[in-house]
């Protein structure tokens, strides 16, 4: 990557949807006399919308895209470090490596993390599902579990084949739909009766996808039931113990609880002096996405207290806006307040089926799935060259099984 010394230093912390978009737009806008630095604690970008596919036998290379590939031959410095100290008044950051980074403009795009809401046992015993590492751990767990219980008695097999997904939002729904098909095939490979597979999805609200229109929730619930998924609504998890999860009115025996029901802004935000937070733990920002009381320090993505915070599309929209404002500030040009943009939704539920909401338009089934896959390709094209984008997209069709039993399926 090319390195150039400039007068003004712009530092972006975090290489998720918002951070990557902000960096690419700043590079394209070429504000004069600037030095752009992207700091990430990982060498790759994770495309979370296809995370569920990495669990169910597809290549993880669709999810993980090296930052080197995204920023190759571009005017930016990409550094791998974990920022541990933030001094916003002095405009200094300190990394785990011991390096210190001064800045003129700062964009904080550190994303979110799993929230367990202090429910006993969940953090210690359940599987999270927010990163490629967690996805591959879950996949490994399934194969080890099914291999171990091939010769177990029926009661133990039933427990091993029972999967409980907590959270009826998009992540839980996507995972449930895909696992409904994948685990039956995997069970067959491991000499387990596929009819023993039981997948439950637990949602505290009165319907799945409570943030969306009611008829979309109903269509998605119907699709999950067609795939054999049990849907439990108006039920909250109260605690988890070894091989058992407790709801308010029932107990479920299982060796696999997957928690998708809560996130919160990255805990690092709470370590930064001077930030103010709303009731959801998100950072309060002014009309220009700057942290309150701190000019030239932008909060974007999941941690920003904006209307559609938590969506990848919102993080991208935030990143574009922050890049524009920084460029205009450096050029001493006028700038404009941030405006929320309503995101579209494309939620796959099992193979070749998706529910899509784009403004007033709604699509279901195979056509919805094609729209979703085109959205994936469009995103890859927005951050990679045509050839690399097509390669990243096509890797999603590659079977990737490390389990020797399932490898030859």
TrEMBL record:
One of its GO terms (molecular function) is NAD(P)H dehydrogenase (quinone) activity. Residues 9-319 form the FAD/NAD(P)-binding domain. InterPro entries: FAD/NAD-bd_sf (IPR036188), FAD/NAD-binding_dom (IPR023753), NADH-Q_oxidoreductase (IPR051169). Pfam families: Pyr_redox_2. GO terms for biological process: aerobic electron transport chain. Its cofactor is FAD. Keywords: FAD, Flavoprotein, Oxidoreductase. It comes from the Bacteria. Belongs to the NADH dehydrogenase family. This is FAD/NAD(P)-binding domain-containing protein.
């Amino acid at each position: 990557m090319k390195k150039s010394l400039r007068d003004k230093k712009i530092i972006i912390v975090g290489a998720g949807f918002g951070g990557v978009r902000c960096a690419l737009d700043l590079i394209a806008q070429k504000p004069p006399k600037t030095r752009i630095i992207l700091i990430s604690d990982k060498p790759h970008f994770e495309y979370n919308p296809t995370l569920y596919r990495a669990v169910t036998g597809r290549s993880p290379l669709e999810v993980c895209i090296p930052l080197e590939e995204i920023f190759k031959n571009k005017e930016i410095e990409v550094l791998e470090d974990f920022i541990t100290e933030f001094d916003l008044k002095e405009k200094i950051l300190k990394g785990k490596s011991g390096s210190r980074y001064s800045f003129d403009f700062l964009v904080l795009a550190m994303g979110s993390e799993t929230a367990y809401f202090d429910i006993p046992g969940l953090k210690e015993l359940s599987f999270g599902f927010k990163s490629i590492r967690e996805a591959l751990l879950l996949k490994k767990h399934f194969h080890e579990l099914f291999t171990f219980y091939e010769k177990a008695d029926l009661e133990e097999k039933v427990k091993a084949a029972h999967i409980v997904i907590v959270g009826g939002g998009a992540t839980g729904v996507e995972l449930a739909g895909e696992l409904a098909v994948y685990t039956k095939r995997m069970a067959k490979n491991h000499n387990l009766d596929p009819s023993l597979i039981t997948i439950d999805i637990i949602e505290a609200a009165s319907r799945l996808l409570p943030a969306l229109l009611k008829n979309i929730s109903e269509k998605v619930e119907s699709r999950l039931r067609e795939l054999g998924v049990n849907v439990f609504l108006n039920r909250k998890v109260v605690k988890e113990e070894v091989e058992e999860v407790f709801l308010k009115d029932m107990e479920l025996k299982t060796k696999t609880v997957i928690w998708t029901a809560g996130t919160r802004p990255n805990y690092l935000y709470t370590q930064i002096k001077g930030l103010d937070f709303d009731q959801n733990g998100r950072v309060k920002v002014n009309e220009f996405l700057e942290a309150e009381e701190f000019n030239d320090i932008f909060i974007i993505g999941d941690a920003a207290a904006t209307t559609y915070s938590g969506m990848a599309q919102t993080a991208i929209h935030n990143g574009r806006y922050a890049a524009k404002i920084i460029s205009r500030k450096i050029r001493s040009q006028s700038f404009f307040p941030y405006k929320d943009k309503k995101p579209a939704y494309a939620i796959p539920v099992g193979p070749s089926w998706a529910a899509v909401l784009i403004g007033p338009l709604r699509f279901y089934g195979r056509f919805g799935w094609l729209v979703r896959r085109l959205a994936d390709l469009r995103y890859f094209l927005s951050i990679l060259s045509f050839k690399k984008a097509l390669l990243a997209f096509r890797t999603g069709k590659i079977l990737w099984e490390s389990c020797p039993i399932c490898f030859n399926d």
